[in-house]
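Hi,

I'm pasting everything inline rather than attaching a file, because the server keeps stripping attachments. The sequence lines come first, and each chain or strand is labelled.
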Amino acid sequence: MHEEIIRLVNVSKSFDDQQVLQNINLSIGRNEFVTLLGPSGCGKTTTLRIIGGFEVADTGDVIFEGKKINNLPPYKRSLNTVFQRYALFTHMNVYENIAFGLKIKKMDKKEIDRKVTEVLRLVNLSGYEKREINSLSGGQQQRIAIARALVNEPQVLLLDEPLGALDLKLRKDMQLELKKIQQSLGITFIYVTHDQEEALTMSDTIVVMKDGKIQQIGTPQDIYNEPVNAFVADFIGESNIIDGVMVKDYYVEFAGRGFECVDKGFKPNESVDVVIRPEDIKLVPVEEGMIEGVVESVIFKGVHYEMIIYGRGRRWMVHSTMMEPVNTKVGMKITPYDIHIMKKVTEE
Amino acid sequence: MKRHLMAYPYALWILIFIIVPLALILFYSVFSIDADGIHFTLENFKRVFEPIYLAVFFRSIKIAAISTIICLVLGYPMAMILAGKNLSKKSLLVVLFVIPMWMNFLARTYAWMTLLEKNGLIATIAEFFGIELPSLLYTENTVILGMVYNFLPFMVLPIYSVLVKIDKAVIEAAEDLGATPITVFRRIIFPLSLPGVSSGIIMVFMPALTTFVISRLLGGAHFTLIGNLIEQQFLTTMDWGFGSALSVVLMLMIMVSMGVAMRYEKENEGGGLW
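And the predicted assembly:
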């Protein structure tokens, strides 16, 4: 099923003695939508630029369809890029921008015309051929940048935070549209973003990165439900991260009491991070709760309320559709399945 | 209301140093003053179009154009190197490039005279190797050399300032679409740098067209450009009327060429120095 198209083998890269990538190993399949996700400075853009050929890795290999392409310049690689701020050619109109790559390939004029018309239809901008770039809105420029890359029919499309400059509504529309384009054309997308929601919405596979290292590779569901460490848990959605002790298999102690859980395989009495999603804490009457607390603040978030509850010496973030007023005493209940136990990340 | 007042010194400045002299030049060009009083005359302008003076105009334009082209050919690659990415090398280059500009313009030109004159440095070295050099000083080429040397920075700087503003991502995008470095230059970098090129051309062509110092020092007493001709009318022959007419014609020529260039720049969204 997983037919590999790109593989990174032990790729490392530093800029001025600062290591930005450390031993990146990654296999990307044909037709896969892969998202490189992480906070700024985590090396996700550098990884993309190494795949695109704009940077050369210090060590390690970039393999494209079984062939090493470590030192191949960008213009010889059969992949195309959508840049962060579009990087359109402002001295050319829409048609000339899109036709740029095709003209370089010395394609027949009629064929170019046909392809440009077709790709403009794909990005919903039919009839914009003669428009100047500066007369277009951000969203339209974005579509032109995508069209300019797609018209070359690359096997892999690299996208570097392409929706970063758009407003929220437009971004959501474009997310769905990009996903649709990717599925209908059946090409591999490698997408860089720091927006976890965007990553969850669009990706087949998410690669979570931090400090130049890959933290976790998995489907959106895997990453959200089974984060491998506290960083991933915290980065993908909101989390309560609590210091705990794994007393024995299926039994953890935190917040001054014991809880049943579903994890095992830790050393007896190993210190662990306990991760609990805010929506997994149920508010119940005090006498039914496992932990007792007092509501400190309530923020209305649209779909749910975000409450901060003080109990057992710490603050708990709770998401619920039911609001409890400030200063109410509440009980909190957590089912064993919702308690995620993670090994402590040792900082070296 | 008060802000209005602050414009007055500037307006006065313009009046005294720009409008009045211009009006005087216009006045002298069309009125002759003698014992009988002041008469309107177009005689001065008629003289401007006599073949001997037209030849001077033609030569001035030719030399200014050649100098401008040489400055462009030398200056563009220089601007590209300056705009390149290696910072440490760049600052050294900028310093090397700027140091001669700290020296007085006349001193620099005199320096060339001592280098080029009959028993000057270059001739002596050539003689040492047994090479007999033709006259280096007082030729058209020497004047062109002086112009290129003095005006080259005015070509390099506007081009440089446009080149450094080109988004690196645009160049990467072109490479990404399959453009070789040569195609990137031809289709992306050069077209985007045109506003700088046109400013550079104006900034070299104008002083090259009007200079009289370079042609006097490096071209010799008999080498006459339009600037020398005007200078002569005012300082030697005292024919202020004819000198003024020559100035007016020269000014019109410059205004027309500037107008063309500025219009072109407006279409390209500007970005140069003008």
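Chain A has a mean pLDDT of 92.

If the labels don't parse on your end, tell me and I'll reformat.
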